[in-house]
Amino acid sequence: MKTFKATTALLALSIAHNVCASESIDSLIKAAQKEGQVYSVGMPDSWANWKDTWADLKQNYNIKHQDTDMSSAQEIAKFEAEKQNATADIGDVGFAFARVATKKGVTQPYKPTTWNEIPDWAKDKDGHWALAYTGTISFISNNNLVKNAPKTWADLLEGDYKVTVGDVGVASQANNAVLAAAYANGGNESNLKPAIEFFAKLAKQGRLSYTDPSVANLEKGEIEVAVMWDFNALNYRDSIDRSRFTVGIPQDGSVTSGYTTIINKYAKNANAAKLAREYIFSDAGQINLANGYARPIRTNVELPAETQAKLIANVQYKSAHPISDFAAWEKSARKLPRAWQENVLIHQQ
Predict the structure, then answer these.
(1) Distance in angstroms (rounded) separating the CA atoms of residues 100 and 90
(2) Strand duo 254-264 + 107-108: pairing
(3) Residue that wins the pLDDT comparison between 254 and 19
(4) DSSP reduced 3-state for 145
(5) 216-241 burial, b if ≥16 CB within 10 A, otherwise e?
(6) What DSSP line would sit under 62-123, residue for residue?
């Protein structure tokens, strides 16, 4: 970890492009320290190594932290429902949910000092959101329960094991698993039908599991194969037993997307939330995310060799691609819960 002095000096090099142009990093730090705490949602220690960022904020700025884990949709609903009685300051939501939160008017803008190093496609022009890291949908297989780890979506249909994707229609990870399956089976952002048909086949075979793809359930052996972000799969694998699991990117198609912090419009600790975002986009914050197996959005950050070694080889990502039609994906994501209920869950055994 960087020392307080070194990190403060790093962050204080320039003026933050905030809604208040005159607010310097120094004044932001002082205001955040006066608040002394930040409450997050959907940013637990085990996800993308958030724990190191929270530890750094505590050590460097004496900002205490507490998180309540929840899905992207639940985070936005919480901000909207609580309004002035806000109990959360900042959240982390999937790409498709970023625009939803902004449209609902529950976010406030803040542009970190590294704003210009974030690709245009990965940020809101006004600073309401910006992807801090990307992930790609992968498979994680329990080697004790699955003889031949699947390498493609086609392999999943031929297996004799159960597959879980999580809470489709609610969790961004699960929604993107559906989109990845669509890509692999001839669909796209505006056509999820091939993916719905794919998972309906699994459900009809009695092989679609509804177990939460959590680290606890993986450790207990309750999951045979799960479809999840690569950074989660790798993190869970290594935190349990590296030899017990195989993690790979589906070679017939996958999706690369990302997650963005959203700062609650009604945040009680707005300055601490802004400082958290500032740190997340600093070199140290980006390396923290990479140590959690996520791929930093700032590609100019030099990763330590041991950090780079944690990630999946680049060659496995040849069939993964980012979302190209965001408007279509947002529309499809809204319709997904009903389509999943009517065409997949109906076959639940």
Answers:
(1) 15
(2) antiparallel
(3) 254
(4) coil
(5) ebbeeebbbbbbbbbbbbbbbbeebe
(6) --EEEEE---HHHHHHHHHHHGGG---SEEEEEHHHHHHHHHTT-EE--B-TTGGGS-GGGB
- Angle CA(274)–CA(89)–CA(283) in degrees, nearest 5? 35
- With bands split at pLDDT 50, 70 and 90, how would you rate the model's confidence at 349? low
Per-residue DSSP letters for 308-340?
HTTSPPGGGGTTEEE-S-HHHHHHHHHHHHHHH
| Residues pairing with 246 in the sheet | 141
Which of 66, 36, 70 has the alpha carbon at shortest distance from 51?
A: 66
Structure tokens at 87: 């109990």
Distance of CA 50 to the CA centre of its chain: 11
Task: Give just the sign of the alpha carbon dihedral 146, 148, 152, 156.
Answer: negative
pLDDT tens digits, residue range 78-136? 999 999 999 999 999 998 889 999 999 999 999 999 999 999 989 999 999 999 999 99
Structure tokens at 231: 């950074």
Rg (CA), the chain: 20
Structural contact between residues 255 and 136, judged by C-beta atoms closer than 8 angstroms: yes
CB-CB neighbours of 344 under 10 Å = 23
Rounded Cα gap, residues 134 and 287, in angstroms: 13
Give the C-alpha separation, 184 to 73, whole Å.
Answer: 26
Nearest-angstrom CA–CA distance, 35 and 89: 11
Q: What is the pLDDT of residue 255?
A: 96
Q: Where are the alpha helices (DSSP H) in 205-265?
A: 215-219, 230-240
Contact 48, 292 (CB under 8 A): yes
Query: In this structure, what token pair is assigned to residue 10?
Result: 């790093």
